[in-house]
Amino acid sequence: MTEPLVTPTSSPPPLPRTKPQAMRTRGGKLIIVCVLAVLMSIPAFLVFGLLMERTNRADTVAREIGGLMGGRQVFMGPVIAVPYTNPGKVAIDAKGNRTVGAPESGTLIVFPTTGQASAATKSEVRARSMFRVPVYTSDIAFKAHFDLTKVQTAMPTATLNWADAQVLSGASDSRGARTDILARVNGAALTLAPSGYGQQGMAGTGDEGGGLMDLFSTPVSGLTPDQPVDVALNMTFTGAEKIAFLAFAKTTEAKITGDWNFPSFGGGFLPVTRSLPRNPAVAPSQGEQVTKKGFAASWSVPFVARGMPAAVDISQLSNLGRSELSVTFVEPTNPYQSVGRSLKYALLFIGLVFLTYFLFETTSKRELHPAQYILVGLAQITFYLLLLSLAERIGFDAAFAVAAGATVLLISGYAGLIFSSLWRFIGALGAFSLLYGLIYILMRMEDYALLVGAVSAFLVIAIVMILTRNINWYGREPFGKPIEEA
User: Fold this and answer.
1) Which of 246, 280, 315, 482 has its CA at 20 to 30 Å from residue 394's CA atom?
2) Would you call 120 helix, strand, or coil by DSSP?
3) Helix or strand or coil: residue 14?
4) 3-state secondary structure of 93
5) What is the DSSP string of 407-448?
């Protein structure tokens, strides 16, 4: 019996090898990297929320410490309060019956014709845990000259009770008083006490919302409208963060001096002259002088600029708050502003680090997984956490050096490990050191931060465009060239 003939079977031909799909091409990978950089802004926003929480906590501590010292003090120089009575209004009905209403009474506030205010402050820093607040003790002096001859024209129908006139002054928080408020009225020595008028609300200057003012007063006998009055006040108060005067006279001259090296001038009017420590490389502006330590500022507010008449009802006294002349004691070691400024550029710098890794990837045979980019992004987010936590303890400059050094070594070492190349590590170390050095420059150049950041971003993008000009983004061979096997 003959066995059937067996035909040997041949193996199927191998399938042709194809190039990577679209999302595995260089162009697709760059899109993925850009999307990951944008997604990393989500944890950056969480860090920003933590920064806001720490900032609010610092503000709360500042208010608590400041409250014990008197807080942000605003002072009003001497004015004269004169009670008045207006006759009742006459009303005539349809039948011709005449009715006289009840007399109206109130208090007229008379501002001095000229006034001078001066404050000499001695500052220190009070701390609670890691939070620091600048506080001060100030010796304050006022001088005022009153011309009462035209006061009646402010209320021609009213009867002014000069026998019950009082000298008024005010401060934001009477808890800051360290001595009695001593006055000399036409040479007679008097002492001011808490006023029966209580607290007076004050309007804000636009940058602040105003607040309450504690009033102090003393009766003055023998005042007559045909005699001028000279008043001098002396007091010692403590406060925190800010000291200010109100333009209490028709023409007000004010001067504030102190040993704090970082003042900020604000309120309703800027000082006419000022002296403060400056970088020698920066030319002083008009009206500014450079000192080695401390500050001095002087104001001159004429009657027309103050925007109030020479005498007003006490209900209108709150409008005087818009004439504030203030100095704020800025805390230079406050880390939150610098950390917040660096977080605003977080997306830019995360993107630049991702671009650096992408360039390493495109110029090597190693393909990175998106998870590795995520790890690098998380390392950069951790940099901001380290910066915030260390800056509260050791100051911003030292904290930046530690946090940036650790982060640069981490992401540079990671580049050397995943690409298995010492040269990649050295290149990454140089590139990332320059990048974080740029971050520090942006933090310190407040006025030019946006310009430097924009120019730097433009230059980096231009360099990336040049270095990637020959990359085959589609991942396919030119027309007519056979596809080589991988």
Assistant:
1) 280
2) strand
3) coil
4) coil
5) HHHHHHHHHHHHTT-HHHHHHHHHHHHHHHHHHHHHHH-TTT
Rounded CA-CA distance 123/129 in Å is: 20
DSSP string, 30-87: HHHHHHHHHHTHHHHHHHHHHHHHHHHHHHHHHHHHHHHHT-SEEEEEEEEEEEEEEP
Taking alpha carbons only, the member of 266, 374, 239 closest to residue 327 is 266
72 and 241 in contact (C-beta within 8 Å)?
Answer: yes
Check: CB of residue 79 under 8 Å from CB of residue 57. no
Output the CA angle 97-99-103, nearest 5 degrees.
170
* Local confidence pLDDT in tens for the 486 residues of the chain: 455 555 555 556 655 554 444 346 767 777 887 788 788 878 888 888 888 888 888 778 777 877 777 788 899 999 999 998 887 676 676 766 766 667 788 888 999 999 999 999 998 888 777 777 888 999 999 999 998 888 888 888 888 888 888 999 999 888 889 999 999 998 889 999 988 887 777 766 555 656 788 899 999 888 888 889 999 999 999 988 889 999 999 999 999 999 888 888 888 888 888 888 776 555 556 656 777 788 899 999 998 888 888 888 888 888 888 888 989 888 776 777 777 777 777 787 888 888 878 777 777 777 778 888 888 888 888 888 888 888 877 877 888 889 888 888 888 888 888 878 888 888 888 888 888 887 787 777 666 667 777 777 787 778 777 776 776 666 555 544 554 443
